Amino acid sequence: MACVDLHKSFGGAKAVNGATFAVPEGSVTALIGPNGAGKTTVVNILSGAMASDTGSVTIGDQDVTRLPTHKRADLGMVRTFQLSREFGGLTVFENLMVAARRQRGESLIDIYFRPRLVASQQKEITARAAAVLAQYGLYEVRDEWARALSGGQKRLLEISRAVMAEPKILLLDEPMAGVNPVLIDRIGDHILDLRKTGVTVMMVEHNLAVVEKICDHVIVLAEGRTLATGQMSELRDNTEVVRAYLGGVLDGRIDS
Ligand SMILES: Nc1ncnc2c1ncn2[C@@H]1O[C@H](COP(=O)(O)OP(=O)(O)OP(=O)(O)O)[C@@H](O)[C@H]1O
Prior knowledge:
Residues 1-248 form the ABC transporter domain. Pfam families: ABC_tran (PF00005). The two termini are 29 Å apart. The protein folds into two domains: 2-85 and 169-246, Rossmann fold (3-Layer(aba) Sandwich); 87-148, no CATH class. It has a six-stranded mixed β-sheet, sandwiched between helices. A four-stranded antiparallel β-sheet has the order 2-1-4-5, with helices on one face. Residues 248-256 have low confidence and may be disordered. The chain is an alpha/beta fold. It has helices spanning 39-47, 69-74, 92-99, 108-113, 115-135, 151-164, 181-196, 208-214, 232-235, 239-246; strands spanning 2-10, 13-22, 28-32, 54-59, 62-63, 77-79, 169-173, 200-204, 217-222, 225-230. The longest helix has 21 residues, at 115-135. The chain is globular and about 60 Å long. Bound molecules: adenosine-5'-triphosphate. Residues 10, 13, 15, 33, 35-41, 256 line the site of adenosine-5'-triphosphate.
């Protein structure tokens, strides 16, 4: 996945001002930068939730700049949000069931003319949902209302839902936000497991210790522009990056 020269203004304010970068296939890539650098806006543009004013987005060889979110999802691009967006009025299990893609049961024609196919697909999705919940430590709470989960469990649910959609490219907006250190490690392990299965992960992340530990590649955004890209260890030696962002808090959490 890559983007070239993205621009996006809100009124007179330039939220994104020429962002250009590539996310290496099969990598875990971090998108970092100070508050207001344009990270979430870039993720919105990459996922198709927001149109850029100018610039382009590609997945592999395909220009997806004008494709809506669901078409990008068909190409395997799935995202999560800075604030978890579970369906509070559904159970944990139901949340996973509705997150599965291309369900035949959604088509009336299939329900009437291919009932056995629909039933077998439902069985397959149910089994997969159970497996994903077990993997993410949520199986025990599968019948709870999603709204009743703890903040950390909601984060895990959000990622589980994304996994149900079988992503090839997963965009995570601050997956560790508001999460305790034990869970941060667990979520980090899940992300590395996803990479092992070939998923490309791009995550907005403020916690540089996490970035250093699990990300192969880092993109630094400042004032809507790509300031630098590389490994975290290289960026620590980049004076421009240090001045703009890392400052005196190289080992700590940069927060709002
Ligand atoms: N819908 C919007 N309407 C107006 N201004 C917006 C909108 N979305 C973002 N902005 C502005 O665009 C700039 C970039 O915001 P964005 O949320 O993309 O930054 P960010 O790097 O994700 O910040 P943070 O780290 O605080 O989440 C900010 O100045 C923000 O106030």
